[in-house]
Amino acid sequence: MHELAIALSLVDQLRRIAEREHATRITCVRIRVGPTSGVDGEALAFCFPMAAREYPSLEATQLQITTEPLQWLCLTCHKLFSEPSSEPVCPYCGALEHHLTGSDELTLESVELT
Ligand SMILES: [Zn+2]
Fold it and tell me: What are phi and psi of 20, to 5 degrees?
C-alpha cells in the first residue's frame, strides 16, 4: 500500500510541525496532489487515521485533499488546458496531439494548529 507509506511520512511531517509550533492539536490539513503523482486521494484519506492513531495531536485532524486535474500542452497551438480525459481534444484549436504535463508532487498547502 503506497498510500499508507505516504500517510506515515505525512504524519511524521505533521508531528514535527506541531512540535516546532508547540501546538497541542492539528485541526485541519490541506494537501494538493499532483495529477501525475500516482497518489490516490481517497486511499490516502482512508490511510491517514491509521497512520495517525497513536498521536493525540492528530486525533481529530481533518484532512482535505485536492487532486489537481490533468494538464495538457497542445502541440499545435501551445496552449495549456485541463482535461480529465486521457485522450482530450484541445479546446482552443481542436487538435488531438498533446503532451501530458502537471505536477507529480504532493504539496502540504496549509496546517491549522491549536
Ligand atoms: Zn491547440
Answer: -60, -40
- Residues 32-51, mean pLDDT to the nearest whole number: 92
Q: What is the mean pLDDT of residues 39-68?
A: 93
Q: Ligand 1 center to residue 96 CA distance, Å?
A: 8
What predicted TM-score, i.e. pTM, was given to this entire model? Answer: 0.79
- Scanning the chain, the segments in alpha helix (DSSP H) are 2-20, 41-52
* Dist. CA 85 → ligand 1 center (Å): 15
Contacts of residue 12, Cβ cutoff 8 Å, sequence gap at least 6: none
Rounded distance from Cα 36 to ligand 1 centre (Å) = 21
The pLDDT tens digits for 56-108 are 999 999 999 999 888 999 999 999 999 877 789 999 999 999 998 888 989 99
Does the domain at 2-69+103-113 match CATH 3.10.20.740? Answer given as no
Q: How far is the CA of 13 from the centre of ligand 1 (A)?
A: 41
